[in-house]
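> example.struct
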């Protein structure tokens, strides 16, 4: 299969459809929301410095989810890599993302790559940058369709980090799907 992990920008919807799917023949696109776009500025999700910026990011992410372009959402808890603690803002944003994914029948991905990154120190101790336990417990509660995967920043990551993601899901009692419909 040929697929691409892509950002969402409504200005490029026809490019995704015409170029990536049409001309290049991609069978699927994965939604990887890494940036908040504000005009011509792009702010990496780890650098969102206010609750209002996080809210804009969540709204932009949900807009991308509603585009119908993507087969699943990669690391939807990536925004937690820039936050030290799970708080009411993180919980509300997570509920909005996960509820939208559930309503759209769009799978969400536990991504094993965040497990091998430097941990984040919180008031409760250290945790992975992502996946974030509270986020995935909420996904389980909401009833999201969940897939495990890994960013392949090196060939060894493909399998190793997927195994780590599956182990994380198993430890939380989360059922995962083994494949997506292409």
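> example.seq
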């Amino acid at each position: 299969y040929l697929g691409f992990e892509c950002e969402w920008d409504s200005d490029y919807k026809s490019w995704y459809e015409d170029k990536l799917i049409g001309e290049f023949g991609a069978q699927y696109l994965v939604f990887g929301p890494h940036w908040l776009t504000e005009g011509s500025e792009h702010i990496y999700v780890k650098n969102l410095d206010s609750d209002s910026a996080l809210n804009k990011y969540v709204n932009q992410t949900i807009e991308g989810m509603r585009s119908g372009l993507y087969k699943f959402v990669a690391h939807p808890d990536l925004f937690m890599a820039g936050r030290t603690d799970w708080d009411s803002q993180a919980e509300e944003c997570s509920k909005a993302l996960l509820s939208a994914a559930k309503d759209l029948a769009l799978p969400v991905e536990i991504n094993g790559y965040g497990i091998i990154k430097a941990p984040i120190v919180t008031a409760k101790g250290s945790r992975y940058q992502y996946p974030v336990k509270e986020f995935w417990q909420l996904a389980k509660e909401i009833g999201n369709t969940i897939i495990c995967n890994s960013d392949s920043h090196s060939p060894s990551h493909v399998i190793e980090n997927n195994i780590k993601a599956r182990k994380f899901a198993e430890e939380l009692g989360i059922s995962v799907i083994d494949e997506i419909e292409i």
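> remarks
The first strand starts at residue 3 and ends at 6.
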